[in-house]
Amino acid sequence: MPRSTTLEVEIAALSGRGEGIAESPKGRLYVPGTVPGDRVEVRLGPKGREGEVAEMIALLAPGPDRVKVACAHFFLCGGCALQGLAPPAYAAWKRDRVAVALARQGLGAAPLAPLVAIPPGDRRRADLVARRVGERVLIGFHRRKSHMIVDIGECPVLDPALVGLLPGLREVLAAVLASGAAVDCKATKTASGIDLVIVGDLALTLDRRELLFAFAETADLARLAVRNVAADLLDPIAIRRSPEIRFDDVVVDFPPAAFLQASPAAEAVLVAEVTAALAGARRVADLYAGLGAFALPLSAAASVRAIEGDAAAAAALRRGAARAGRRIAVETRDLARRPLSASELDGCDAVVFDPPRIGAKEQTGEIARSKVPLVAAISCAPASFARDARILIEGGYRLQRVVPVDQFVWSSEVEIFALFLRN
Ligand SMILES: C[S@@+](CC[C@H](N)C(=O)[O-])C[C@H]1O[C@@H](n2cnc3c(N)ncnc32)[C@H](O)[C@@H]1O
User: What's the topology of domain 6-91?
Assistant: First the structure.
């Protein structure tokens, strides 16, 4: 059978990745860009690990929850997984990402709150890819399941200030990139302006440097740096204002391309949950503290021991806390290799932990062995969160509250706040 076969199918459900699922005479099909109830004509594509991926070539009849997609690039761009679904159905699908992960760990009865919606256009960090093709520069996100770049003119997910950077960035990259060369562009909107790190080998001649400097001026960037990964070098092209970020009105220096919660609105929801849950705590450990998104608000009422693996982030938090006279002891430490032990934790009234995507298996094991009465977990990865939740529960904690937050609007990712109490 030639692979160009087309079929007419009805979308019955959504996959965890946000593709429509249809049962067809050819077996199960995954159709990106569709929603349940859609009748679509599809072209069969490559056979994936979990079934056949098919491309929608015509929407014959929309499903009952279909709404207009928010972006002209949606059907090609891999930046978003699912648009075109009415908010209640979308919220149920997103919340289900957490419910499914919890159920896989035998925690299906966990008290899971409704999804907290976050408006699009609030994302303050963008990881863009750019490539010079002939005289043009394509800049945007990868196409779905491809290394090709979708050249974006709009992005309703990103903060408009980041979208506004694109025309000038495209122009300067056309002048400084060799034909065929590609770079990553990491842009963060900080309180004092945009911090942009261009990652790649730009062979920085004086001319190119001057062009980049002029771009930093016209775009009013706070800082522009070029990171050459092979040479392990960060070259500051222009520092026009010191990039900084504010947590609880405390100013913290922002190291180039450092971690920040992707959306300020989502961060505010997480901080409100953490500070409300830990309201009575006087001694707190904040693990995977980053620049202090939780440590600083908590330090208004508690003394905080903040642990962070990245030395630049830890130093920035230490300086910010010292300038503001906050009671935070900051330690640089690799919590995977050297987790805070149960006995080190035992003096604390509460622990906050917010690990990277892989979760915090070793650290959670130590918390599970501790006597800490209250544990707040933040996670951007339901599977590792659910595994760590199970370790805590087996160690004698109970899951009091789980709140999914739509920090990554229209993607299949979800942020989680959870509160555990010792039985
Ligand atoms: C999801 S971020 C959370 C940061 C901070 N809580 C916030 O909300 O902005 C995870 C943090 O863990 C740090 N990290 C990653 N692996 C680590 C490790 N093995 N030990 C300690 N910190 C680590 C990262 O540098 C990053 O700052």
Answer: OB fold (Dihydrolipoamide Acetyltransferase, E2P) (2.40.50)
**Number of helices (H) and strands (E), helices first, in the chain?**
10, 22
How many angstroms is it from 292 CA to the middle of ligand 1? 10
CA atoms 18, 22, 23, 29: torsion sign: negative
Write out pLDDT tens, residues 303-349.
999 999 999 999 999 999 999 999 999 999 999 999 999 999 999 99
pTM of the full predicted structure?
A: 0.96
Question: What number is the average pLDDT over the span 96-104?
Answer: 98
- Ligand 1 atom nearest the C-alpha of 260 is 9
List the catalytic residues: 380
CA of 74 to the centre of ligand 1 (A): 31
Dihedral of the CA atoms 113, 105, 362, 275 (nearest 10)? 10
CATH of domain 125-244: 2.40.50.1070
* pLDDT at position 39 over 70: yes
Task: Write down the domain spans for the chain.
Answer: 6-91, 104-119+260-422, 125-244
